[in-house]
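Thread: quick sanity check before group meeting

JM: Hey all, I'm pulling together slides for Thursday and realized we never actually wrote out the predicted structure for the chain we discussed last week. Dropping the sequence here so it's in one place. If anyone has concerns about the input, flag it before I start.
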Amino acid sequence: PGAGKGTQAKKVAALYGGPHLSPGDMFRDHFRRGTELGVRAKAFMDRGELVPDEIVVAMIEQRIAARDCAQGFILDGFPRTVAQAEALDQMLGRAGLPEPLVVHVKLDASLILRRLTGRRVCKVGGEIYNIYDRPPKTPNRCDHDSGELVQRDDDREEVIKERLAAYEEHTQPVVAYYRRRGLVQDLDGSGAPEEVTRALFAVIDREEGRGGHL
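JM (edit): ok, ran it. Output follows.
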């Protein structure tokens, strides 16, 4: 949480192609549309808890069945549990796609808290700001469309601490799951976004150049 994976995933999608798939975005979209999966997911998200695997997997499987995912996609924040990783293996196998390149963005917990508690999102276009490190020109207003900037419910400090605890319990084992298979590339997420982007692109280019997971 708060490592900048959403920002970096969008840049990867823009440069290399393929849709950017974020379970969080999917959940919020489903909730706005009043779907059963969205309503069930939001109840967990608001408490800072991980959404149960069956809900996440159902939503991901529904999305990657779309035509634009036929040649691959960028997953942002999935899988979060070993069960989800195993489900993804099955999905990729059925789709005839190779094993994933897994990027593990590493960041100190104190910096995560600063990034997340300071994060504000534009209600109109979804642009992301940080009141500490990347504030808007006009307080609480987006630079692009003057939309109101809001703090997500799951960006409050008490919820973030629950998210970090859940990450340690459920998601760290996923890193070990993929590391045993030689699929993990570690990335330092503490630098400026542009620095992290350059390092990430270098990882992707290196994997692509040696016929890796792309």
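AS: nice. The radius of gyration is 17 Å. The mean pLDDT is 89.
JM: adding both to the slides.
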